[in-house]
Design a protein that fits this description.
By secondary structure, the protein is α/β, with parallel strands linked by helices. It contains 19 helices and seven strands. 65% of the residues lie in helices and 8% in strands. Helix 3 runs parallel beside helix 9.
C-alpha cells in the first residue's frame, strides 16, 4: 500500500465532491421554499444536509473495501432507514395506501435478507451473482411503486425526489456499480422521475431546480462510488501481485487463504488456546502467513487508510513501529523520510516487510529483538498490539525507556474480544490509567481534532507524552 497514492486519490475525491454538495444546496433552497407544512420543510432540509455527509463519506467507505459483500450488510441496514423515512413522508401527507405499502416493503425486505446476506466471500474481480441482479430488480420495482403511491397520495415533491435519489444510490451500492453507463442511467432516472413528481405541485423553475439537483447529486455521488471502487481494485491487484511475487504461489491459492484468513485465525486460536507470552508469540509466528494476509486485506479499508494518513501526520524524527504487522505503516513512515524501525515476531509478515522495503529502496530497519532497539525515539507506535500481549508492564516500561522526554506513544489498547478476534487478551486493568501513573501524560486532546480520522477519536486509542525526568 502506497499511502502517497491514497492521499492524492482522496484529494481528488474531495474535489469531485463539489458537485453533489452543490446539488444539496439546491435541495436546501427548495426546502425553505417548500409550499407545504413545517414538518416537510424541516425534513427536506435535514435530508439535504444529510446528503452532504452521505456524498462525502459513503462512496469511499463502501468503495474502498476488501470484501465485496460488506456493502451488502450496509445496504440491508440502510434500507430500513430508507423505509422508515418513506413512512414518515407518507404519514406527513396522510397517504394511507403508501404507508401500508411501506409496511409490505419492509416485510419483503425481511424475506429477502436471507438471500441477500448468505453469500460466500468472493474475489473482488468476480462479477456479482445473478441473484443480486434479480434482487436489485425487485427492490427497484418496489421503490418505484412506493414513490408512485406517495405521489398519488399528495406527498411533498421535494421529499419524494430526495427519497428517489437515496433509493437509486442504494441500488448502485447493491449492483456494485463500476461503469460510467450506470452513472448516467441512474442520473437520468433521477432527473426524469423528479420532474414527474413535481409536475403538479411546483412552479416550472422549482421543477427544473429539483430535477437538476437530483441528476447532479445522483451522478456525482455514484461517480464517487465508481471511482472509489476502481481505485480499490488497483490497490487490490497491487496487493495480490506483491503477495504472488513474495510467496511464489498462484493468485488463486493466495485468494483462497486471503478470503478465509480472518475466520481461520479465530478458529486456530480457539483450538490452540496458547498460555503465557512465549506461547502467544510462538503462536503468532506459526500463524504469521494468515496474519499477514488478514492485515493486508484490512489495510484496504477506507477507514484504515484515513487512520494511517492521520497517524503519519503525527510522526516526528526517529520512529519505532512496535508490532508492525504487514509493515505498510512502517514503509509509509520510511517513505515520508522518518528514521523508522519495525519490530515484530519472526515469520512471513516480517519477511514480507523486509522484502518490500528492499524492493522499494527504503531505509527501513527490521528487527525481532527488543534488545537491539536503539534509544531514544521521538515517537513509538503500538497499534492493535497491546491486546495481543500477556505481560504488559515490562513492555510499557520499555516504551518509557526508549522514548526521549517529551516523546509520544501512540497506541490502541484492549477493547474486548470479538467473534472474529477471540485472541484479544484482557490484561485485567486499564492500560491508559496504568500508563498515566507510570511516567506518561495524556496529550490526545492536543493532537486529535474535529477533522482527525474517526478511529483516532475512539476511546481505546491513546496519545501519551513521556514526562521529563
Amino acid at each position: 500500500m502506497n499511502y502517497e497514492i491514497q492521499r492524492k486519490f482522496l484529494a481528488v475525491q474531495r474535489v469531485r465532491l463539489l458537485l453533489p454538495v452543490a446539488a444539496c444546496a439546491a435541495f436546501l433552497i427548495e426546502a425553505v421554499r417548500e409550499p407545504q407544512g413545517v414538518g416537510e420543510r424541516v425534513l427536506g432540509a435535514a435530508l439535504a444536509l444529510a446528503f452532504v455527509w452521505a456524498a462525502y463519506y459513503l462512496p469511499n467507505y463502501l468503495g474502498l473495501d476488501a470484501d465485496p459483500w460488506r456493502r451488502l450488510y450496509w445496504f440491508s441496514r440502510a434500507r430500513w432507514v430508507a423505509l422508515f423515512l418513506f413512512a414518515g413522508v407518507a404519514l406527513f401527507a396522510g397517504a394511507k395506501t403508501a404507508l401500508g405499502a411501506a409496511v409490505v416493503a419492509a416485510l419483503l425486505h425481511l424475506l429477502l435478507l436471507r438471500a441477500l446476506l448468505k453469500l460466500e466471500r468472493r474475489d473482488l474481480r468476480e462479477s456479482i451473482p445473478a441473484r443480486i441482479s434479480a434482487l436489485a430488480l425487485v427492490y427497484g420495482a418496489t421503490d418505484g411503486l412506493l414513490l408512485w403511491l406517495a405521489h398519488r397520495g399528495g406527498a411533498s415533491p421535494l421529499l419524494l425526489s430526495e427519497l428517489l435519489v437515496w433509493f437509486l444510490f442504494l441500488l448502485a451500492v447493491l449492483l456494485r456499480s463500476r461503469s460510467l453507463v450506470h452513472v448516467i442511467a441512474f442520473g437520468l432516472a433521477a432527473a426524469g422521475l423528479s420532474y414527474f413528481f413535481t409536475a403538479a405541485a411546483a412552479p416550472e423553475l422549482g421543477r427544473v431546480v429539483i430535477a437538476a439537483g437530483a441528476f447532479v447529486w445522483t451522478t456525482g455521488t455514484i461517480y464517487l462510488l465508481v471511482a472509489a471502487s476502481r481505485h480499490n481494485l488497483a490497490n487490490y491487484d497491487d496487493l495480490l501481485e506483491n503477495l504472488q511475487a513474495f510467496l511464489g504461489e498462484t493468485r488463486e491459492s493466495i485468494l483462497k487463504i486471503l478470503l478465509l484468513s480472518v475466520p481461520t485465525l479465530a478458529e486456530n486460536w480457539r483450538r490452540d488456546q496458547p498460555q503465557g507470552q512465549e506461547a502467544v508469540a510462538a503462536w503468532y509466528s506459526a500463524n504469521a502467513r494468515l496474519y499477514l494476509l488478514a492485515n493486508c486485506q484490512h489495510h484496504l479499508l477506507y477507514r484504515h487508510i484515513m487512520y494511517t494518513l492521520g497517524l503519519l501526520r503525527v510522526a516526528r524524527g526517529r520512529v519505532l513501529d512496535f508490532g508492525g504487522g504487514n509493515g505498510d505503516f512502517s514503509r509509509a513512515l520510511a517513505r515520508d523520510g522518518f528514521d523508522t524501525t519495525y519490530l515484530d515476531v519472526p515469520g512471513d509478515a516480517a519477511r514480507y516487510v523486509k522484502w518490500r522495503a528492499e524492493r522499494e529502496g527504503l531505509p527501513l530497519k527490521v528487527t525481532h529483538d527488543k534488545n537491539t532497539l536503539q534509544a531514544p525515539y521521538d515517537v513509538v507506535f503500538c497499534l492493535d498490539v497491546v491486546e495481543h500481549l500477556v505481560d504488559l508492564p515490562p513492555i510499557f516500561e520499555l516504551f518509557r525507556q526508549l522514548l526521549r522526554p517529551g516523546g509520544k506513544l501512540l497506541a490502541t489498547y484492549y477493547n474486548g474480544p470479538t467473534s472474529s478476534a477471540p485472541m484479544h487478551i484482557d490484561p485485567g486493568y486499564d492500560a491508559l490509567a496504568f500508563l498515566l501513573t507510570h511516567g506518561f501524560r495524556n496529550v490526545k486532546s492536543k493532537v486529535v481534532g474535529i477533522f482527525s480520522p474517526e478511529l483516532m477519536h475512539k476511546n481505546h486509542f491513546m496519545i501519551l507524552e513521556k514526562e521529563p525526568g
